[in-house]
Give the backbone structure.
Amino acid sequence: MDVTFYGAAGEVTGSMHVLDTGEDRILFDCGMFQGRRKESKEKNETFAIDRSKITNMVLSHAHIDHSGRIPVLTSRDFSGRIVTTRPTADALEYMLMDSGHIQESDAQYLNYKSLRSFLYQLEQNNVKQKVSDREKSDIKKMLKKNAFELNNEAIHALQKKHGLDIVTPLYTMDEARQSLGFIDGYPFDYPITIGKDTTVKFYVAGHILGSAFSLVTVKRDDKTTRILYTGDVGRFGKPILRDPTLVFDEEDRDIDLLVIESTYGDREHEPVEDLGSRLKKVLISTFERGGSVIIPSFAFGRTQELIYILHELYDKKEVPRRPIYVDSPLASNLTKVFVEHPEAYDRDTHKAFLEKGENPFQFDKIRFVQTVEESMRLTQDKSSSHVVISASGMCEAGRILHHLRYRIHDAKNTILLVGYMAENTLGRRIEDLGTKRNEPGDKGEIPEIKILGKSYPLLAKVEKIGGFSAHADKHELEKIITGSNLRIKKIGIVHGEAEQSAAFSKHLQSKGYETIIATPGGKITL
Ligand SMILES: [Zn+2]
């Protein structure tokens, strides 16, 4: 029996591991590689294993770096089932469809860009001089329906006419829709058969709604082997969700192999800080200036945490009760999934809301914006101060861009950053330029920010609140091993940059554990 690592080995995206029991091959997660476009495209397109040989798949949680290649798995040769928790299955309906949409739009944009430069070149050859801005603008107009929408029919027709390569999406929304038919949601703490003499049981992982530790038991010839795959591990003491499990059922305590993530294997987070009081300060000072608070936020998890904390602040009347708009159809749909799964909430959430007959995610001041028209009206509404929560979280696409372009040049407003901003994203640029502004040595120059092709002065205040991380730090990761009732023989370390995994491994070895750091294509034999 062995486990082979095909992704998230020496890195944090593309989670995919295979347990071979001799009789069956069980796939743990099937995640998307994220990062530099070209490199991840190649990795996402190649499927490292023969899909027809996989018996079934077990999914730890709905984040795209763990679930995003499910449509690639199910589009060819796979005849098994995808076993996960009920909230995860429900969230995937929206997450995978959204991912299919992103794949399609990315491909369309690449086709537009390559055709546009081809046509510029063609025009230059025709007129034998540099193409004028006027001609460039005519070409762009021909390829676009309006300022923000491409004319895909025209683009494809011209690509064909000139014999150009057409970029195809990793998968389409249609393929994403079809993949949903393979997914089965089950309750936590309940053994599910996934192969010959093989079951999986899900325990709460506390990372996002529905996230689970997957405990696989193989009982064969009087010998029992247990593998525990953590997926991503959550933090302790965060609002809404139950903490990661430390107490496992008696029959599940002897673990032959623990496969654990190590994103922050060498990092210590600040204690789950008092997010409410920080949020309160930002709201009060912005409202006093007569401005609005614009929050770019991830649609799954972060948005619902914000709604929850705002609900508490509004109930206690700690801030002026100005309207809150959630302007992201994906975030609105995923909030519905939260509402449908109160069994996943912690005791505090039950006490604060459910026992009083209240829904933590619905109150009189909150509005979920649906249509594009309503969203556009909101971007231009300067009549009152309000809060807007919108996606995407790193300001790379989506409705947040329109809120930013209408608000960023007014010092009354605040752009509140609540998440990690990756390099080369608009979010990171706003963070870097906006926070540098208040530092000593700042010359008072007003930075320019480019949004949807136009430059805007960054005059709005930029604030950042940390402490929202959904990943355990090194102490919290260690707690799963030394603070739980598990007896663990061997530990495989995945899902971490090299130095994070190495530090975590070294630390565990100093405590007497046998550890192996996963390598791409590497194997641990049991
Ligand atoms: Zn995750």
